[in-house]
Amino acid sequence: IDYNNYKATHLFENTKVNESDPVYKRINSEEWNIIINISEDLAKELNETSSVKIRFCKDDFTTNASCSLLKKNNVYYLNLQLHKAMVRYINERFVDIELVMNDKIGLKIPNSAITTKEFFTIPKEFFTTGDKPGLMVKQKIDGADTTTLLHPTLYYETDEFYYVDGEEISENDVIQMEDSSAVYTVGTDKGSLIGVYNINKGYAVFKQINIIYQNEAYAIVETKTAYGISLYDHIALDASKVKENQLTTK
Which of 51, 63, 150, 250 is 20 to 30 A from 199, comparing alpha carbons? Predict the structure, then answer.
C-alpha cells in the first residue's frame, strides 16, 4: 500500500538462453487484484456493494471491478478483483486509481477554485418590468429627492428574489416599487452563493455554480445554467487569491 519505502528486487533464475532466443513475460490469467486503503466512512458506504467502477489515472481507462472489504489492525482496505486489462498494467507495481462513486455528467473543476460570496436578495416585485430588470433607487442629489433607474448585474434568481452585489447599490439604499408607493430597503434580506471566478475577459467575475457531486479534490457542476459557467470558460484556479474585478492572467 505504501510505496514510499518500496524497493524493487529482481529475481533471476540461472537459466541460460542463446543469442536471438525470444524471452517472454508470461501471463496465464487475466484475473488480478488491486488493494487500496479506504476510510471508515467509505467502508460503511461500500458495505453492501459488490462491484464498483474505477478509473485508472495513468491512461483514463475505466472498468468495473468486483469488490470486497478487508479490515486489519483497525484499518479498512478495499479488495478490487478484476477480470481484464492486466496486460495494460503488467509492468506496474503500483497504480493510481479513482473510485467513480457518482457517474455524474457536468463540468469538472478543482475545489480550490470554489468560493462563497454574500449578496443582497431583493424581491422581484421591486424590479421594473421590461427586457432588462431595473431598480428605482431613491437618492438625495443637491438636497433634492430624486429617483434613479439602475440596472444592476444579476447573479442568480429564485422564485422570489434576484441576487445583486454591492457594486452598483449599497446597503440601506431605498428602492421604490414601479407604479406604487411601496418601498424596500436594500440589505433587509441577504443570501450567499457558491461559485467561481470567471476570467474570460481578463478580470475576475463571480459566477454561481450548482454542485452535483464533490469529493476531496474536485467537484462536478451543472452546465448551461443561466448564471453559471460553460464549457471552455477560463476560471481562477485558486479563488482565495483572487479579488472581484481584479485584472488577472488566464
Answer: 150
